[in-house]
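Aim 2 progress. For Nitroreductase, the working sequence is reproduced below.
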Amino acid sequence: MNRRRILIGAGATLALGAAGGVAWRTSTGSGGDYDRLTARFRAPLTDAPPVTELVRYAALAASGHNTQPWRFRLSDGAVDILPDLTRRTPAVDPDDHHLFVSLGCAAENLRIAAAATGRPGELALGADGRSLRYSFTSGAAQPDSLFAAIPARRSSRTIYDGHPIPPSALARLRQATTAPGVAFHFLTDRPSLDRVRELVVAGNTAQMADPAFMAELKHWLRFNPRAALRQGDGLFSASSGSPVLPDSLGLLAFDRFFTVASENTRYEAQIASSAAVAVFVAERSDPAHWIAVGRACQRLMLAATSLGLRHAFVNQPVEVAALRPELAALVGEGDKRPNLVLRLGYGPTLPLSARRSVEAVIV
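Predicted structure tokens for this construct:
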């Protein structure tokens, strides 16, 4: 689930100087409008909200490349959470692992939001093992400390301050991730973090040498507020700390300045600044277990948000198959397949990512 920042350096400055202010704003859109619209999508839920509002909260979940590969089917007494295979990313995720993890993230948001606002229920895997159903039951609202974190959660793909996470906070994070069939490992010692850094750099180097990977990544990039709001998905440059550019200049900057060396340097600095790395490993490699990993990971990210921690995925060691055994060995998981790698720490927040409308994800 990596969202790669585009380093454009001096190219952005030259482009900005060459463009007129009005023309620039017309081609890129307004950052203020972007902030207002993304904040509106994250407005707090009322008590006993309509089901469509629960879907809105579900869709605030994390997803690879912010593809939002989910659909929701509403019926009397239930919501089905279905994979949207039209939003696959076959270069980085050829077996749809990340897609089903993302589905689990959305389902967990839905479960937490529904229960906290007076619509308790049961979340169960579909008979096909590739979808979920949330069935409403009767009962009072069930307060959950993770509920308030749903609209605030975001990835922070930037430098953290290096301060350690207190043991009490680590214990709360561990508690949030408990799930049958899913193992969770926290790495906080420097030798282990250094080894993760080496694996991330090796993975990034391999991926950036793959033309299919680079073409797919470029497809999901959104270089400015106008493009991000128009599409409602994808990797918005400002959400990774990169400058806003018109589409044409963004593509040019990507081709010229997005290099293996610059990206590896960035990842090395980011991991060096992180207090911990979390690794998820499912008991089995199938969609049902990947969904379970997504649910556990979403709870971890919400718990981290509630504790004032930032997080960002560094999934290269699980996306490049040749590196998975080394990561599994690092966390003592033998021949199992690691599923997700997430770094955590204290640091600044970055702009929120865009979302598609509720109408666009309901079938």
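The beta strands are 70-75, 78-83, 121-125, 132-136, 182-187, 221-222, 235-236, 276-282, 310-313, 338-345. This observation will guide construct design in the next reporting period.
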